[in-house]
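User: If only I could read backbone structure tokens as easily as an amino acid sequence. Underneath my words sits a plain record pairing an amino acid chain with its backbone structure tokens. This is the protein in question:
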Amino acid sequence: MSKKKKKEKVIYYDDGSTIADMSAVNSKGVKQEKKAPVPKPEETKFQTFWRAMKMMFLPMCVVLLILSLLYVGLMFLSGNW
């Protein structure tokens, strides 16, 4: 019978940055100290929702206009006008 080897337990430390975050590395490749993050203002879910809706409203209207024009154009070309 063979003995089973115990796997080495790997401990990962999360510093909160993404993989692509290279802002803390200088030109020589040495990681610099991070500055303290600026706290974000408190925002409710309602405020976040309306802020996102304001950003998406104009693009949504443009898409709906394009779809409407395509529909009218296809109806005109098919003769079911």
About this structure: The chain has a mean pLDDT of 79. The helical segments are 45-78. The longest helix spans residues 45-78.
